């Protein structure tokens, strides 16, 4: 975003009045909270009654920045923050996490391949979008960085705050308070969704996106799960269909792959199904 918005109306803009307000004489009246300009009053904006405004702002800010960058479509990468890179596998919390470390490399390679395609559109299409953290997210941003392209990181404030990984493009590194708005930004431009092994957060993101597609609230896109053995072990997909809690055709919404090349092939050959 530019420092001063371009505008065609004749009214004074907000930047001018903020600058003037900062030079106001110091009096009992000007020190009073009531005197502050509402849109510069952090205490006011954080009030309980202002939650609808904060939700709107959190939706609008990343939208405006990505629009200004000309980003039209993204490739989303969900996955576990605890999955280490292969060179760090010895420090993994469990043997299973250590064994899953090869998906770090697959995520890195997949992001690199998709970013090479993104560069052909000057960074407008197929931009890698991760949660901005460690593990699979780091691998995704790293792969995009290695390809020489931009990538998005959608971080969120947690009780134990994590610094965004070093490979997110700085001016596409966002921070959220509301999980719901963050999820919207994951999917608003999604041309494909990939899901690597992960825990509660990964599953939450995966199932919410699947539900939106299943119910027709989001158009169908390639929905690719890396690691068939992991996903079939932790979720009995067929049992859901046999129980009737999902339809058998709902299983067709998902593709399982082992490698980055398989995932890229699915995306490259994707044909939008007839409604």
From TrEMBL:
SUPFAM superfamilies: MCP/YpsA-like (SSF102405). GO terms for molecular function: AMP nucleosidase activity. Residues 1-27 are annotated as: Disordered. Residues 1-16 have a biased composition (Basic and acidic residues). Pfam families: Lysine_decarbox (PF03641). Its EC number is 3.2.2.4. GO terms for cellular component: cytosol. It catalyses: AMP + H2O = D-ribose 5-phosphate + adenine. This is AMP nucleosidase. It comes from Paracoccus versutus.
